[in-house]
């Protein structure tokens, strides 16, 4: 049995292009793997708080010494990490907002990067602990930036996922969505064709 974790990050809820592509991938996957189970974490609808000093302080306080509030912060982070641990395939909807990733997705990343839990430092450098997983990222943009220095997302997301051990990462782009209706249709059609190939 495969477990998929679908992470949506759009502020557009049901009208999101990246979440829709992620949905289509999950549907295509399920059509081919009847026993697949799916966990959905929507950080666009249920935003993740910024990692401030208080929240980070909870991570680095010994379990026995944590306050009730710190325990809640760690329990929230643990729940996010548990979903990742259970997942074989991570399906990430990645909108571009103001040349970067959605701030709620950054906050999610900040809550899953935990020393000794999802990565550790060794004599040879950091080692990611979330191993043996595949990630498929659906990157949607109003403009076209893939392969240019203005695409700040691809390298960052690939590096971050690699840092926690997720090194098998495939990006599917739907770009130029704001350029014209024709450009939008062409980009989404191309992404859908890639979905069929990836889910096969
Ligand atoms: C607040 C905001 C900022 C945006 N910034 C960018 C941008 O910097 N570059 C870009 O190409 N598109 C930008 N867009 C367009 C989105 O990338 C596009 O609407 C895409 O479909 C977003 O994915 P979503 O529909 O899953 O939210 C922005 C849209 C919004 C709402």
How would you sum up this structure, described in words?
By secondary structure, this protein is α/β, with parallel strands linked by helices. It has a single domain (3-199), classed as Rossmann fold (3-Layer(aba) Sandwich). 42% of the residues lie in helices and 20% in strands. Helix 1 (17-32) runs parallel beside helix 6 and helix 2 packs across helix 3 (68-86). The longest helix has 19 residues, at 68-86. The chain is globular and about 60 Å long. It starts with a strand and ends with a helix. The structure holds flavin mononucleotide (FMN). Flavin mononucleotide binds at residues 10, 12, 16-19, 93, 95-99, 140-143, 177-178.
Quick overview of this protein structure:
This protein is α/β, with parallel strands linked by helices and 200 residues long.
Structural class of the helix and strand makeup? alpha/beta
Widest sheet, order of strands: 2-1-3-6-7
Bound molecules: flavin mononucleotide
Number of strands: 7
Gyration radius from CA atoms, angstroms? 17 Å
Mean pLDDT: 97
Q: Fraction of residues in helices?
A: 40-55%
Task: Outline the fold blueprint.
Blueprint: E1 3-8, H1 17-32, E2 37-42, H2 53-59, H3 68-86, E3 89-95, H4 103-112, E4 119-122, E5 125-128, E6 134-140, H5 152-163, E7 168-174, H6 181-199
Parallel strand pairs: 1-2, 1-3, 3-6, 6-7
Antiparallel strand pairs: 4-5
Helix pairs in contact: 1-6, 2-3
The structure holds flavin mononucleotide (FMN).
């Amino acid at each position: 049995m495969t477990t998929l974790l679908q992470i949506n990050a759009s502020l557009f809820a049901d009208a999101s292009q990246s979440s829709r592509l992620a949905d289509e991938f999950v549907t295509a996957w399920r059509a081919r793997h009847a026993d697949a189970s799916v966990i959905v974490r929507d950080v666009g609808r249920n935003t993740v708080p910024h990692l401030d000093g208080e929240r980070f302080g909870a991570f680095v306080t010994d379990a026995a010494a944590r306050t009730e509030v710190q325990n809640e912060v760690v329990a929230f982070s643990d729940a996010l990490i548990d979903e990742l641990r259970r997942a074989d395939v991570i399906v990430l909807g990645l909108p571009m907002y103001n040349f970067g990733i959605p701030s709620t997705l950054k906050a999610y990343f900040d809550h899953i990067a935990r020393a000794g839990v999802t990565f550790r430092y060794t004599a040879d450098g950091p080692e990611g602990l979330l191993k043996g997983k595949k990630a498929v990222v659906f990157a949607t943009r109003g403009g076209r930036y893939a392969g240019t220095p203005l695409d700040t997302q691809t390298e960052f997301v690939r590096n971050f996922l690699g840092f926690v051990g997720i090194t098998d990462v495939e990006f599917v782009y739907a770009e130029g969505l704001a350029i014209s209706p024709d450009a939008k249709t062409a980009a989404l059609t191309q992404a859908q064709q890639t979905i069929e190939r990836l889910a096969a």
